Amino acid sequence: MNSSADLLKELRIDRQRPPAPPSRRGLWIALGVLAGILVLALIGWVAFGRDGAPEVRTATAVAIGGGGGNASVLDATGYVVARRMATVSAKITGRVREVLIEEGQTVEEGQVLATLDPVDANAQHALARSQLAAAHSQASSIQAQLQEAEANARRLTTLVDQQLVSRSQHEQAIAQRDALRAQLETARRNAAVAAEQLEIAGIGVDNTVVRAPFAGVIIAKAAQPGEIVSPLSAGGGFTRTGIGTIVDMDSLEVEVDVGESFIGRVQPKMPVEATLNAYPDWKIPAEVIAIIPTADRGKATVKVRVALNSNDPRIVPDMGVRVSFLEKNDPAAEDAPPPGVLVPATAVASRDGGRIAFVVGGDNTVAQRSVRIGRTLGNDLEVTSGLAGGDRVVLEPPAALADGSRVRIMEGAASNR
Question: What are the UniProt keywords, alphabetically (predicted)?
């Protein structure tokens, strides 16, 4: 009985015993979740900026048209081109022995640019010189024989008159003299031909020297010593066709494609103001040279040649340029504002049915401007109102960007307009 009572006592719940300590597994899980949230917050803070400002690219609005008594009747874009530019090559096929030019080097007309291996040309020249010497020697030999024949003919003429020799002997001497005269004439002609062949061989030697056809600047070096050059393309593309390219920097001008709808505004000798894309603050005076009398049916444009009234080393071929065709304004309109500015097309956005642009201020806050769009010039838009020259506009503004927002300028992404 006692043992059964003891067993029943062991089955009772002891309410006075302190509770068991809770498990720590849930605590570690909670700490892990909290750490993950902190890491994600840190990553977002770094990615989107400490102050929440979006990162944007900017460009500078460029004023177009002119003032000071001249107004722009038409604006267009084009490129600087050279009227005198040549890829210089040798007149013969040969191996390059020496190249004496480098890119950017200024050369004078007739200056030696390169030389070819002259072994073959020198051999031909030496052979022609030997042939000329042999022709002269032959002519001298016949000349001596002719002198003897003429003396013999004169003597026999005297003797035949005295009937001391037969007439047949006299006639034979006369025939021999005439034959030698003909031979001497032939020998002299052969000597003249040999002299011309020597001159041609000399030209062949001179053709191994490549000279500058005009004064200019080397913009490309195409060959190296040891390569084969030829005036014709040969050898399956392994033969060079030129030594280098030379440009006459005094012949630089601008070629502009003007829409055929506006070509009536352009006249020869018309004043022009040119602005290089590389130097937007430099206004270069120019004038229209000619309007090419043909149109491009694919682009519906007419090519116009413009002369630059400035010879500056900063102007180089293939530079992009914007030109404004000018005409005299009335005196009352001299103080009229310029027609507008030029900005990249990506700087203009559509908001609430209107066209707007964001201008970056000195503290990197943006101001929303309502703009009016004019013409489209390549990848640029003409803004006739709302912006001024020199304004820094945001390119591809984010949809969340609003007036007064702060932005961060992307490093190295500012447009060099």
Answer: Coiled coil, Membrane, Transmembrane, Transmembrane helix
Q: Which domain holds residue 373?
A: 55-63+338-409
Question: CA dihedral defined by 75, 76, 80, 84, rounded to 10 degrees?
Answer: -100
The answer to whether residue 353 is domain-embedded is: yes
pLDDT at position 1 over 50: no
Q: Which of 304, 328, 352 is the last residue of a domain?
A: 328
Do 185 and 129 share a domain, yes or no? yes
Which residue spans within 127-236 are E strands per DSSP? 209-211, 216-221, 228-229
Q: How far is CA 223 from the centre of its chain?
A: 18
Domain shared by 268 and 401, yes or no: no
CATH number at residue 59: 2.40.420.20
Instruction: Judge residue 347's burial from the number of C-beta atoms within 10 Å of its C-beta, 0-12 exposed, 13-18 middle, 19 or more buried.
Output: buried
Could you tell me the strand order of the sheet in which 209-211 lies? 209-211, 112-116, 94-99, 228-229
Mean predicted confidence (pLDDT) in 246-269: 91
Which stretch of DSSP H or E encloses residue 30? Answer: helix 25-48
Question: Are the beta carbons of 273 and 309 closer than 8 angstroms?
Answer: no
Torsion of CA 294, 295, 296, 297, to 10 degrees: -120
Instruction: Please tell me the distance from the alpha carbon of residue 165 to that of residue 173, in angstroms, as a whole number.
Output: 12
- Position 249 scores a pLDDT of 92
Considering its fold, how many domains does the chain have in total? Answer: 4
